[in-house]
Amino acid sequence: MGFSKRFHWIFVTWICCNLHVSGSLPSESAKQRKPFFERLRRLEEQFRRFQDLSLTRLQIISENFNVSSNVDLRLQSLTDQFNNINATANRFHTAAESDIGSLKSWVKKLQKKAKKIDLKMSTLEKVLNERSKQVSRDKKEQDLLVTNLTRKVEEQREAIGALAAGRIKLQKEMEGIRDEVKGQGVKVASFEEQMTSALQNDALSVKPSPMQSAAATAPLGHRAKSFNQAPSTKQPLSKKEGSICNVNSVMHFPNSSTENYATFGKGFSTGLFEMTICSWLRTKSNYLGTMLSYATEDNDNKLVLHGRNTSKQTTIHFVIGDPAFRELPVIPLLDGRWHHICIIWSSFEGKYWYYIDRRLAAAGSKFQKGYEIPAGGTLIVGQEQDNVGGGFDYTESFVGSLAGFTIWNRALVPGEISSITTGKSLPGGRVLTFNDVSTLNGAVRHQNCTCLEHC
Fold first, then answer.
1. Which is the most buried residue in 96, 157, 206, 249, by most CB within 10 A?
2. pLDDT of 243-276, one tens digit each?
3. What is the residue extent of each domain of the chain?
4. What is the SS3 assignment for 49-111?
5. At what angle do helices 30-202 and 220-228 cross, to 10 degrees?
6. Backbone angles phi, psi at 244, to 5 degrees
7. Domain 249-454: which CATH class?
8. What is the predicted pLDDT for the residue at 404?
9. Helix (H/G/I), strand (E/B), else coil: 365
10. 208: number of CA atoms within 13 Å, CB side?
């Protein structure tokens, strides 16, 4: 549009110049002006057509330019959108890679946990199988005991019936013997009267000696007893009634010292989901120190019976997997006499039981349900470990004697606790006893004693 206007002004200027020149020419050239004006008119018309055509072309070019400009803007917008989409895709790809990495790590952790769970399940299956086998064996033994008891009861009934019949027969025989004794007494009295009269008749002729007089004047039955009496023999002594003779051995801890402790040569060979600890205990101290400590590399308090020398001690801590613990009363144990204690824990139920002299002294629930006491740790009697095999404190030392110390890998029933306390045989399923102790340290002494009264 600017070009056409410029061309139009140039053309008009040129025409004006020509008109100015033509005005100065002589009049004789007037005839020549007419064709010139015609030609000028035609040129002007052609110029106008050219101008219209140019304007039309310029409008088309302008429209095409606007379209091209819009296309460029659209392409720029599309390019920006593509860049944004590409950046978003890159971020999504980066986030996806991060999520995939996290998922891989979680998958590995889940695989490890699955392996651990499979191991625990296999261990649980073994424990349950062993327990079911033990229960079936116990049931068979109980059935056999019931059968034997029934047979013995029948035998006792028959014996009692026989004794009753024998008693009746014996009473009848005793009555006959009494009658015979009465008859014999009458005869003896008559004989004694005859002997007395005969002796009196012979008194003037023969003077009896003191021994003969005593023999003669003594009753006949008494004289027979004095002549026929045999010297008594001493009967052998029998085992004392009610003796506790299932303790096997005793361990003495004479004083409070970090040097006094005993170490087991082996810990638990497999993880424990159930456990029973029983022992005879005697202490003359006014407190009960640490009896047992089981430590591993990741936790030094996997299993602890922890006591400490305090001014007023009333309880000890029963620890399973620190920091979980329960308090157990100990005042009845601090009288210097032998007492029997049993501590039972079940991971399947999350319960524990504490017996003193076969009486239930404490019990509870929601205690480490589903927990496993792992294998491979260090087990020490008499000290509390702050690290594996060490870190002792003399104020936590056990002082006294332990006898018949035993650990089972199952939860004993009250009947079995009573059987142990009364001196009968130990139940099956034992894991550790004092026979498994490998080293004694300090002044600790270990000696065999079959019965508790000799320990």
1. 249
2. 898 999 999 999 999 999 999 988 898 999 999 9
3. 249-454
4. HHHHHHHHHHHHHHHHHHHHHHHHHHHHHHHHHHHHHHHHHHHHHHHHHHHHHHHHHHHHHHH
5. 120
6. -95, 105
7. mainly beta
8. 95
9. coil
10. 15
Structure tokens belonging to residue 42: 């035609």
Higher pLDDT, 455 or 180: 455
pLDDT tens digits for 302-332?
999 999 998 888 999 999 998 899 999 999 9
Query: Six-digit token pair at 117?
Result: 């769970």
Distance CA 245, CA 317 (A): 30
Question: CA of 69: how far to CAs of 61, 66, 259, 371, in Å?
Answer: 12, 5, 97, 76
* Residue 184 to residues 14, 176, 191, 313, Cα–Cα distance (Å): 198, 12, 10, 77
How far is it, in rounded angstroms, from Cα 18 to Cα 12? 10
Q: Which residue has the tokens 């891989």?
A: 104
Extract the runs of DSSP E, i.e. beta strands, from 335-383: 339-346, 351-356, 359-364, 378-381
Classify residue 162 by its DSSP letter: H
| Collapsed DSSP state (helix, strand, coil) of residue 424 | coil
